[in-house]
Amino acid sequence: MSSWTWDLPKVTWIEKRREARRRRREELERTTIPLRLYGVRRGTVVVVTVVSVLFAIFTLIPIAWIVINSTKTQPRLFSSFGFWFAAPFHFIQNFKDLFKNVDGEGIFTHWFVNTALYAVLGGGGATALSALGGYAFARFEFPGRKVLFFAVLASLLIPVTAVSLPLYFVFAKVHLVNSIWGFILPSMVSVVGVYLMRIFIEASVPVELIEAARMDGASEFMIFLRIAVPLMVPGLMTVLLLSVVGIWNNYFLPLLLFSKASLYPLTVGLGFWGSHASVSGDQLLYPLLVMGGLMTLLPLVLLFLFVQRYWRAGALIGSITG
Q1: Which residues lie below 8 Å from residue 215, measured CB to CB, with a gap of 6+?
Q2: d(CA 228, CA 203)
Q3: Helix (H, G, I), strand (E, B), or coil: what is residue 177?
């Protein structure tokens, strides 16, 4: 009798878990839309899923390599299998060495701070200017609007390398070479951002809402700031992410403009380390290059994780208003 009484709470707990699982299955079946309602065959879904998994693996392979090899010493980096760990575990020591002034060639911390500064100022400026430009093209009528917009889009056809040398001469005349503004000002111009913001504003900011605000006597600036901007947040976050990633990974422009190591971003600084290691034969720099690549990647991953919630919110708004 006592044994049966002792087992009773355990049986009751198991039954509750089974009931909870059954309710979750029923809720999932009730809220899931069958594939046949989408007009998609199950075989098509399987093929798309397999392709997506293969693409995800292809994308994650370099990240896995850099994470694994950031734990290795210089000899094990070249002698061990690249996609598995090898003793001794040297991650902490590599991380500490990364922030030292290696051979007087520059300090990773300076390059990281420089890159963050360029990304914040350039990405924020590009987002603001793209929002203003996209709003003007989407919600204002003025002569030559279409011609000007197509001219802006046509600038995408011009290679960056074709305008780099003229840009350097212009910046040399106005003393912007070896100046942070020589890199930040061009980074604030985002043709893709203007295009994306125009498309997003046309889809998410109703004309009727703007007209009603104008009839109530609101100024154009207040309409943009109080009405349009809150509705543009998912688009703004997309432009911000694209701009920050573009600036963070930019190599050619800072290489052209900066000759001082104290102004280098991470791309140029790590490239300088790599050139020094290959020319001088100092292989001790290679573990630092791997660790530096990992530390360069982490802020972008964190930024993406932060921004994606705004995309979900934008998709939800579109499903309600569309």
Answers
A1: none
A2: 12
A3: coil
**What are the tens digits of pLDDT across the range 157-203?**
888 888 888 889 999 999 999 999 999 999 999 999 999 999 999 98
Q: Whose structure tokens read 């971003």?
A: 265
Q: Is 253 helix (H, G, I), strand (E, B) or coil?
A: helix
The CA distance from 285 to 272, in Å, is 11
HSE-CB for 123 with a 13 A CA cutoff? 23
CATH superfamily label, 103-321: MetI-like (1.10.3720.10)
Q: What are 239-257's pLDDT values in tens digits?
A: 999 999 999 999 999 999 9
Single pTM value for the model = 0.80
Which residues touch 183 (CB under 8 Å, ≥6 apart)?
Answer: 118, 122, 250, 253, 254, 257, 258, 265
The answer to whether residues 119 and 247 touch, using CB atoms and an 8 Å cutoff, is yes
What is the distance between the alpha carbons of residues 12 and 251, in angstroms, rounded to a whole number?
63
Establish how many alpha carbons lie within 13 A of residue 199's alpha carbon, considering only the half-sphere containing its beta carbon: 11
Q: Is 103 left (phi over 0), alpha (psi -120 to 50) or beta?
A: left
d(Cα 119, Cα 246) in Å, to the nearest integer? 9
Domains of the chain, by residue range, sit at: 1-32, 34-99, 103-321
